[in-house]
Design a protein that fits this description.
Elements: H1 2-7, H2 27-30, H3 36-40, H4 50-67, E1 76-82, E2 86-92, E3 95-99, H5 120-128, H6 134-143, H7 146-151, H8 157-162, H9 166-190, E4 195-199, H10 200-205, H11 207-216, H12 226-230, E5 244-247, H13 252-263
Parallel strand pairs: 1-4, 4-5
Antiparallel strand pairs: 1-2, 2-3
Length: 264
């Protein structure tokens, strides 16, 4: 940015932060239970995938719900951004109120190669008892865990879904289990659930994963239409479902373009 500004000082530059969509979350959703001095120094839960959630929020309210007979604004929505990086966001009346990623992009859901949330005592055990260097722990948590670590085969969901090895099935099951558990937490933060949206690579194209997640959310009133789900349709909810179930492709680049156009 500095180099471009030196070459073209009259050219506007727009920075679109992936955390901005979560910036108005209530303090209770952003605070770690640590000594106050750390919060005062900026150690809080920032959340990520904000550009994706911003885009999905706009498309759901402006395009999807009005054309499917739903209410155009408001409601309690959980968006599942499921890709190599994965997270969930609870949105109430168009505003982010809670998310699974926090200070870093390793918190929350199990991902392609990232562990997601762990007992902090386990990290201390690896360093103090197992003698792992902090750099080695970092490498393991970010690059060697998640779907790859549990399966020992691949961090790519497409490969695991095609694989007959029991380790692949175990990794997929754990991936869905962690999503369902976190949906329960976010539904509590919302006081219920009106819509569940799947997006990103796995969310948009892995029908078996969506089916497993929705099955785990039956207690919320979610009922899947298997035929629509298998076809990767936009609306995958059965008529009897009390929760809207949607598949919406994300477009973070378009969101950046929208922000830029409205800023410059």
């Amino acid at each position: 940015m500095r180099a471009l500004a030196a070459l073209r000082p009259d050219l506007p530059q727009v920075a679109c932060f992936d955390t901005a969509f979560h910036a108005d979350q209530p303090p209770v959703a952003r605070t770690f239970p640590l000594p106050r001095r750390y919060r005062d120094a900026g150690v809080i839960r920032y959340g990520f995938h904000g550009l994706s959630y911003d885009y999905i929020n706009r498309v759901l309210n402006d395009q999807i719900l009005p054309t499917h007979g739903g209410v155009a604004t408001g409601g309690r929505v959980i968006v599942a951004h499921l890709g190599n990086g994965a997270s969930l966001c609870a949105i109430h009346d168009g505003k982010s109120v809670a998310s699974t990623m926090g200070f870093t992009a390793v918190e929350g859901l199990m991902m392609g190669t990232r562990s997601g949330s762990l007992d902090p005592g386990l990290v201390l055990h690896l360093i103090l008892q197992e003698g792992m260097a902090p750099e080695a722990v970092q490498q393991m948590l970010y690059k060697e865990s998640g779907l790859l670590g549990v399966s020992g085969i691949s961090g790519d969901m497409r490969e695991l879904l095609k694989c007959d090895a029991p380790e692949a099935a175990e990794a997929i099951e754990l991936f869905a289990y962690r999503i369902v558990s976190e949906i329960g937490s976010l539904a509590a933060a919302l006081g219920g659930l009106d819509h569940l949206v799947f997006t990103a690579g796995i969310g948009e194209r892995a029908a078996p994963v969506r089916a497993a997640v929705v099955e785990g959310c039956q207690w919320l009133g979610a009922v899947l239409d298997p035929t629509a789900n298998q076809a990767d349709a936009t609306d995958i909810a059965a008529e009897s479902s009390r929760v809207g179930l949607w598949v919406i492709p994300t477009d973070e680049e378009r969101m950046i373009a929208w922000h830029t156009a409205s800023t410059v």
